[in-house]
Every structure is written in C-alpha cells, then in structure tokens.
Write a structure and sequence with these properties.
Number of strands of chain B: 11
Number of helices of chain A: 5
Order of helices and strands of chain A: EEEEEHEEHEHEHEHE
Oligomer: heterodimer
Number of strands of chain A: 11
Strand content of chain A: 25-35%
Shape of chain A: globular
Strand content of chain B: 25-35%
Chain lengths: ~240, ~200
C-alpha cells in the first residue's frame, strides 16, 4: 500500500452536520479505496502558491472514488474553518492516501469490538460501524459516544437509525446537557459508564478509542484499570493544534 | 502544478524557515500514541543496550542519573504535521551510553515499556544528535509525553523518539518497528518529508 503523490479531488457535497462540523464528500479519480479507520492528508493551495496540509480521518470505507470526511472547526485554525465555512461543491483540493495501517478494523475477526468516541473522534469509528454493519458483524460491536450535547453529535441520525434497525449497540454519554426526556446522568465517561456500556474484559474485546487527547488518556487509563490488557486498546488522539 | 483551492489562504499563518515542508507551528504539545499510557515505577525502571553479539549493558534509574546530563534545546517535528520550536530537555547523550558497548552494528531498534518499537540507523544516534531524555521544560517528563524517559532524536520525525523507552537492540540489518510496519517511513527525515511508505 505504498502511498503515491498528491491526487486532485473535487468537493461534490458539503452539508452541515452540527453547528461546528460539516460532512464533505470528495470525488478522487483513481482513489484505490480505503479500510475502515484510515485517514487522508488534505492539501490546500492558495492562488499565490501558499500551501497548508492537515490529516483527516475518513468516515467512509471500501472501494469507490468518493470519500467522506467530517470536519469539525477549530476556532483559531487555518484549514478547518475553510473546509467548514468556505468550501463549496465544485471546489478543488488535493489528497494523499489512504494512510495508516493500525487504527483499522477488518472483517473476519471473532472477537467483540468496542468503539469509544469523544466528539469528532467518531469519524474513523463511523467507518468501522458502517463496515461492520455491511459485513453482518454489527451484533459484535458496541459504540459509546461522548458528546457535549445532542446537537454536537456528528452522524447522530445515521447512528440512531442503524441502532434501531438492530445494528451496532449505541450508548450516548452527554457531558454538558442531555436532550429532553433523557433518563441517564450527565457528565464525563467514568468507570460506571464503561462498566455499563462496554464489553467486559472477560469477553476479550478489541477496543478502539478516538477523540481529543484528554478524553483518550482518561478513557484508556480507565479501561486498563478495569482489566483490559493495554495491547487490546487501540487509540487515536486528536491533538490540540 | 498544484490544484488551487478557490478562496483558500485568508487565515494563513506566518511561515518560519525553521519549519520543514508541510509542517505547521503549534504552541501546544500534542500526543501521538497507539495505545494507553504505561505507568512505570522508577524503582523498576531499567535502560539496556543489547549488542548484535548478545552482550547486554544495563542501567538502573540511580545509575542513569549519575551519568553526565546534557541540556538540549531543539525543534521537534511530528509526522502528523505539527512542529514545536525551541523545546528544552535534559537527558543523557546516546554517545555516552554507546561508549559503554562494543558494536559494529549499523541499526538500532528502540524498545519501549508497553511494547512500542522503532528502528533508527545507529549512526543517527551518535555525534550529539540523540538522547534519553527525562526532563521537559524543567520538569520531570509527564507519562503522556513518554516519562519517566523517552528517546529524543529531534532531527527525525518524532515517532522515532520512542516514549517510555527501556532499551536498544543493535542490529546488522534494518528491520521495521511499530509504525514502520503500519505505513510509515523506515528513516523519517522531516526536511525531505520521509513520512510514508
């Protein structure tokens, strides 16, 4: 899977999904397809030649020449505000990838799969949800998704829909405010939440944790404390930059 | 010729000649790790070097602290594209450590608590270019940044600077470490963008 050079890509769809995030569909002629959980480098070039590059997780998986990104705006960023506010269908940019061979899920494994997302950390895990659903492996997958409020949840409708159709088991955790009628508590993911909403260590799940650094550090530490072997916990941290 | 992205560039950051191509400046200290952060007790901590012939040289934390300690001021560059300028570290030079072993090996595999590995040509660990660092910014190195001690090889992408390092295995032939088996470059020079396979 040697990574080639930069490939031109065209934005074919740009839709808001939360107040600060947008789903982008990019058409990439010659895209070789990607595994669930991989990422891509995006390069933007200004008219005077100035360039900036950032990495984004891919929410889609499999063959085909269209990929989906979900970009959350970093307020003082230079690339994410352009992708969330400015870019329009028909605009062009460049991509390199797919990248990364570790934080990926491949069908065929016998073990249960635990996904734990914080905020925009859902994106590579959404690719795994979709891949597992298509592989008829959804019954072995549980997802715990921590968001500030319901409206901050990227992919909320799709996740609710697939869960109610017998797909991946879904547990929400609200850290700031819950929607009306919510029976559970509000707050950070803690040991009680992990015990109630995730596969227990005895089932020997493989665990994928993705989100901001502080979230991932906290959750991964707690999982080890609950008895999950560190080697069964794969993490991807979104740095604060 | 690169594709121009319509309307991009309004929020650009100032460029800096100390930034390698494709990198941007951060004031934070982001974290890249593949799994949970290991917690290592200083009483249990060891750093060892095993040569290609199998000879082992090992230091306890106390023995390690008695070695000559150097101050290092350097820029660091992560393959995820952040760079941090003017970071300050304290640690023991690999020159000091390698002086204690007999070797004709050409490569080293760094091993970490938690199982992480990364491969580096042995020459690139010599001549004042690599350290085992245990202080950052005047404080003991945080576990999430690799404490109690990490490798510091700042002229290569930062995944080569193995966190929670516990030793080196010296090898005649190059072998891929953890990220090197998972899509990243065997060498990792930021100035020539040796990022991926």
């Amino acid at each position: 899977m040697t990574v080639g050079g930069w490939q031109p890509a065209r934005v074919v769809e740009a839709v808001g999904t939360t107040p600060s995030a947008r789903l982008l569909h990019l058409q990439v002629p010659g895209w070789p397809g990607n595994e669930a959980g991989q990422h891509v480098d995006i390069r933007l070039t200004a008219e005077d030649g100035y360039q900036a590059v950032r990495s984004y997780s891919i929410g889609s998986y499999g063959p085909g020449e269209t990929i989906e990104l979900a970009v959350d705006e970093i307020p003082d960023g230079e690339v994410s505000p352009y992708l969330v506010r400015d870019v329009l269908p028909g605009d062009e940019l460049e991509v390199k990838g797919p990248l990364g061979g570790y934080f990926v899920w491949r069908p065929g494994g016998a073990e249960p799969v635990q996904l734990i997302a914080g905020g925009s950390g859902i994106v590579p895990l959404m690719a795994i949800v979709r891949a597992a659903t298509d592989a008829r492996a959804a019954a072995s997958v549980r997802l715990l998704y921590s968001v500030r409020t319901a409206e901050d949840a990227i992919y909320r409708d799709e996740l609710e829909r697939q869960a109610s159709n017998g797909g991946v088991a879904l547990t929400w955790r609200y850290t700031r405010g819950a929607p009306g009628g919510w029976q559970g508590r509000v707050g950070r993911v803690d040991d009680d939440v992990l015990r109630a909403a995730t596969w227990e260590p005895g089932r020997e799940p493989i665990v994928y944790v993705c989100g901001p650094t502080g979230f991932v550090e906290h959750v991964a530490d707690a999982l080890v404390g609950l008895g999950h072997p560190p080697a069964r916990i794969r993490t991807e941290r979104f740095g604060g930059a | 010729m690169a594709v121009v992205s319509r309307g991009f560039g309004a929020r650009r950051r100032e460029s800096d000649p100390r930034l390698p191509p494709g990198q941007y400046l951060t004031e934070d200290f982001p974290v890249l790790s593949a799994g949970p952060t290991p917690r290592i007790d200083l009483g249990e901590w060891r750093f060892g070097i095993r040569t290609e012939g199998g000879a082992e040289t090992c230091w306890t934390w106390e023995e390690f602290q008695a070695l000559p300690i150097e101050d290092v001021d350097t820029d660091i560059h992560c393959v995820t594209r952040w760079s941090k300028l003017g970071t300050s570290w304290r640690g023991v030079s690999l020159d000091t450590l390698l002086d204690e072993v007999e070797t004709d090996a050409a490569y080293a595999m760094a091993h970490s608590y938690g199982g992480y590995t990364t491969n580096i040509p042995l020459d690139e660990l010599r001549e004042g270019r690599a350290w085992v660092a245990f202080e950052f910014d005047g404080e003991p190195l945080d576990p999430e940044h690799g404490g109690p001690a990490r490798l510091l090889v700042p002229h290569l992408y930062f995944w080569k600077s193995a966190k929670w390092v516990r030793g080196l295995t010296l090898m005649d032939d190059d072998e891929p470490g953890f990220w090197e088996q998972n899509g990243y470059n065997m060498h990792g020079d930021p100035w020539t963008e040796e990022r991926y396979w």
